[in-house]
Design brief:
alpha/beta, globular
Length: 156
């Protein structure tokens, strides 16, 4: 099921969402086998500013979430922490730490594939969204869910 919340009278570009979510899934498939396969892509004005994966295990850092890594890479590329007008694509709903970083970076649109009932911070468990954000969930949900399911089943 896809939940589509559009705030601010913006016309959604669903085809773009599918394109960038597929890129996110492809990137998540490249995550080393000891990391949860989560990836994030930040786009602004149809330009990819950053692509990142989870690096928690590699870096032994709680901050190694794909969203945090992508925000830092986008800020480094632009020379500005303020990513106003950007969109972040991630295959799993961001947690509260990542949602806070997304809010602080002024990212206006968040697109994800699978809701996270355990830690999701844009409506599944918590809701840290602001009224001027656009949230799109369930994009390529089946593909995102399968990727995560395969990972967790392999860990059992």
């Amino acid at each position: 099921m896809e939940l589509r919340i559009v705030l601010q009278n913006q016309k959604p570009k669903f085809r773009d969402d599918l394109y960038f979510m597929q890129r996110t899934i492809d990137l998540a498939k490249s995550v080393p086998e000891n990391e949860v396969p989560v990836a994030a892509i930040i786009v602004k004005d149809d330009e990819i500013l950053a692509e990142a994966i989870n690096t928690r295990e590699r870096d032994a850092s709680i901050l190694g979430h794909a969203e945090i890594n992508a925000i830092e890479a986008a800020a480094a590329k632009t020379g500005d922490w303020n990513l106003d007008g950007a969109t972040i694509y991630v295959n799993l709903e961001p947690c509260s730490m990542c949602a806070g970083a997304i809010l602080q970076a002024h990212i206006k649109k968040v697109v994800w594939g699978v809701n996270d009932a355990k830690s999701g911070a844009f409506g599944s468990r918590y809701n840290l969204a602001t009224k001027n954000m656009e949230l799109v969930s369930g994009v390529m949900e089946r593909e995102c869910l399968e990727l995560l399911r395969e990972f967790f089943e392999s860990r059992r």
